Inverse folding.
């Protein structure tokens, strides 16, 4: 951003608030502005259609608008927006659009939406076909991802996932960089990587989880067919051979048993005449097993032992095994097997792109409340144990690096990231970073998809120093564990806005620490010019200016969603209740000429 443009945004600000705007009944779920700032995207109240509104003005230059300068009227919304179109989507039965999911493609021509419903079909057959999926009972869903043309609302393409669980809130289970789009399926433990063409079509490039290469499934299926054929041949041979002799041998044993002593080995006695202390002969045991159907049940698939590991998990175990052997100085095997039970509980939990060729995968033991429907914005204060971060090279289908949540590489991933906007390409850099003296040296590090400014770096460094203080029972390991909760970073909910740029405006430091600055537990947010420290404007999410606010910096009962326009001085704030998620009020923050 040039200095001239910065100067304009520093002077032209959304300095006037319209409280409690009366929204149209069929425009209840506001999503975001388009990247050019011209349209506002929202969902219909039934969550089965989309509405696109054209932004008409952001200032009060028209004398006809004089009556709405200080308060909202039923026509306030229409003073600023006009309906461009309403489109009902053709969705599967019982599907509803996810209210917190809306992404824009790289070319700004399409939006990505998703609908879901509770899976009603049985997943037993599906579970047998995927041996490495979760072994716990969770509510599964059916999902459908749509690519919708922004200008017309036409659905261009659709991709479905059935009997699975995907983190949709805050885009947590999704990652996007340029034209690449990935989805992490928690239940089946698969990462699906798509390419989105300029025409708006999905093209599946690769899936990682059960398999790593395109021909893995073909190779394993050929081996399985050969093994099954061998079992069938052995079973048919044993059946044809033993069926001819079993009856004759049994009759001969019974007929000759009267001339045999109890101590003779290899001679079968009738059960009613045999001594209870005598061991059963081999022929007698074989006959008994055949009568009980043991050999038939041994051929069942359930009797073939535990299913094999998936390809990605096998690659992780191989990486950890080789590292243990190399680093433990003779105790590698003991160290690896001592932690094998812990490794076996790890599941893919989050992921994000590191450039076009790599994935950052967070593997952890599933927390007991991971299906909780409501999550606060201050989860960075909690520590989640048993976590590994994996850097996976998609081109070579191999794991490049593995480190836990106490490693200083966690800080490198965050602090070495540069400003990356509009999902731009990211390349690896060689930099020791802040922790180059902590054993990392000049190793290769990778930039995260969401960049940080110098002010973000200072805020993170301050957090790290706070978490390290011994007087607060802190340490380097605890600091890295808490910092690791910022990773991986999902796609941003809202487009970049100059008014949320910390290099232009100074706002409460609490917002700098948040994973998503457009979701805050604050009702009033003052903004000051970074250069002059002068007060510029206030985002006020209260129902009116007369509402009593006991704590300016924190509100534990409500959450405020900030919906900024990326181009014009227009910001929408939507306050919701944390208890039931219901919307309390919507305010418009617009530009007003100085009188």
């Amino acid at each position: 951003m040039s200095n001239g443009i910065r100067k304009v945004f520093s002077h032209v600000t959304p300095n006037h608030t319209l409280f409690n705007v009366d929204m149209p009944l069929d425009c209840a779920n506001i999503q975001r502005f388009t990247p050019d700032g011209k349209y506002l995207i929202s969902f219909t109240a039934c969550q089965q259609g989309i509405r696109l509104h054209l932004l008409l003005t952001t200032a009060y230059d028209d004398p006809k608008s004089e009556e709405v300068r200080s308060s909202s009227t039923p026509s306030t919304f229409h003073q600023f927006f006009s309906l461009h179109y309403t489109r009902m989507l053709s969705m599967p039965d019982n599907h509803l659009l996810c209210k917190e999911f809306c992404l824009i493609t790289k070319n700004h021509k399409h939006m990505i939406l998703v609908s879901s419903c509770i899976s009603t079909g049985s997943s037993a057959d599906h579970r047998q076909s995927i041996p490495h999926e979760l072994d716990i009972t969770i509510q599964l869903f059916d999902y459908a991802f749509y690519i919708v043309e922004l200008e017309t609302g036409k659905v261009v393409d659709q991709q479905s996932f059935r009997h699975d669980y995907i983190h949709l809130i805050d885009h947590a289970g999704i990652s996007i960089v340029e034209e690449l789009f990935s989805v992490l399926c928690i239940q089946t433990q698969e990462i699906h990587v798509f390419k989105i063409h300029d025409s708006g079509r999905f093209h599946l490039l690769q899936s990682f989880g059960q398999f790593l290469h395109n021909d893995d499934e073909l190779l394993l299926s050929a081996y399985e067919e050969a093994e099954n054929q061998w079992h069938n041949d052995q079973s048919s041979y044993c059946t044809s051979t033993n069926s001819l002799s079993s009856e004759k041998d049994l009759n001969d044993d019974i007929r000759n048993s009267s001339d045999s002593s109890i101590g003779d080995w290899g001679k079968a006695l009738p059960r009613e005449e045999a001594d209870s202390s005598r061991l059963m002969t081999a022929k007698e045991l074989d006959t008994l097993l055949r009568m009980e159907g043991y050999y038939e049940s041994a051929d069942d698939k359930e009797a073939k032992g535990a299913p094999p590991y998936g390809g990605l998990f096998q690659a992780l175990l191989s990486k950890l095994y080789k590292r243990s052997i190399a680093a433990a100085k003779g105790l590698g095997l003991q160290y690896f097997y001592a932690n094998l039970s812990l490794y076996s509980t790890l599941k893919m939990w989050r992921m994000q792109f590191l450039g076009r060729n790599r994935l950052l995968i967070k593997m952890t033991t599933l927390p007991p409340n991971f299906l909780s429907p409501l999550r606060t914005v201050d989860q960075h204060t909690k520590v989640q144990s048993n976590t590994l971060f994996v850097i996976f090279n998609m081109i070579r289908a191999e794991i490049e690096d593995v480190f836990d949540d106490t490693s200083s590489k966690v800080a490198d991933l965050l602090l070495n990231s540069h400003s990356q906007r509009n999902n731009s390409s990211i390349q690896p850099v060689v930099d020791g970073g802040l922790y180059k003296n902590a054993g990392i040296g000049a190793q290769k590090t990778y930039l995260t998809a969401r960049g940080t400014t110098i002010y973000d770096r200072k805020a993170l460094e301050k957090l790290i120093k706070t978490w390290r203080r011994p007087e607060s029972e802190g340490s380097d390991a605890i600091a890295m564990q808490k910092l690791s909760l910022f990773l991986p970073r999902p796609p941003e909910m809202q487009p970049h806005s100059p008014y949320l740029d910390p290099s232009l405006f100074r706002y409460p430091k609490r917002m700098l620490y948040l994973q998503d600055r457009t979701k805050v537990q604050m009702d009033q947010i003052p903004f000051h010019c970074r250069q002059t420290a002068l007060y510029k404007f206030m985002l006020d999410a209260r129902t009116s200016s007369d509402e009593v606010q006991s704590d300016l910096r924190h509100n534990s009962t409500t959450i405020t969603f900030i919906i900024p326009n990326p181009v014009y001085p227009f910001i929408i704030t939507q306050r919701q209740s944390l208890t039931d998620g219901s919307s309390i009020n919507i305010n418009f923050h617009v530009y007003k000429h100085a009188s």
Remarks:
- Residues 216-256 form the longest helix (41 residues).
- The mean pLDDT is 76.
- DSSP finds 14 helices and 27 strands in the chain.
